[in-house]
Amino acid sequence: MPQKKKTYPSWSMFPEHHDSVSDELAKSGLLFSFNEDDDEDSCSQDYDTNIMGRFRCHRGNCKTQGWSSKRIAITIRRYHPASYNVRVYHQRCKSCNSLSRPDLDVQSYVDRITYRLKKWNGLQVETPVYFGESNAPHEEDLCEGCKMGHCTQSGGRVVTFPDYW
Where are the domains of the chain? Predict the structure, then answer.
C-alpha cells in the first residue's frame, strides 16, 4: 500500500497575539474578540496586506538557516458584531521547497491589524510611516499568499509601504 504524502497547511492563525491587538484597540475604545472559525463566506469585510517576520526551514537535511521577509501575506477578516481573525500565509524554502510557518514580527502584526479595524470602524487614523523598504525580489512561486490570490505582491501588482496599510 503506497504511503500518503503528508500535507502541511499553507497558512496559520495566531490567536496568541490577540491580547496585544486588544490592548491597542482599547486605547481607541474598541473591543473585538478573536474569531477562531475562519470562514470567508460569513465575514463582513476582508483585506489583504503584508507584515514582517522570519522563517526557518524545519526539514532536517536542508542547509538553509532561514530567511527574513518584509512581505508575509496576510488576510484580515472582520465578523459581525465585533470579532476578527487573520490568516498568515506561509512561504516555501528556496532550497528544498518545504513549507515554513513564520515567526512573526509581533509589532508589525499588531500595527497592521489595529490600523485596519480602526479604519473599518470609521476612526480617523494616520497612515504609519515605514522606514524598512525591502530590496529583495518577491518570489511568487514560494509565497502561499500569491498562490491563493491574497498577496499584494502577486500578479505583478507591487504595492509598497505605506500604500497598502
Answer: 11-156
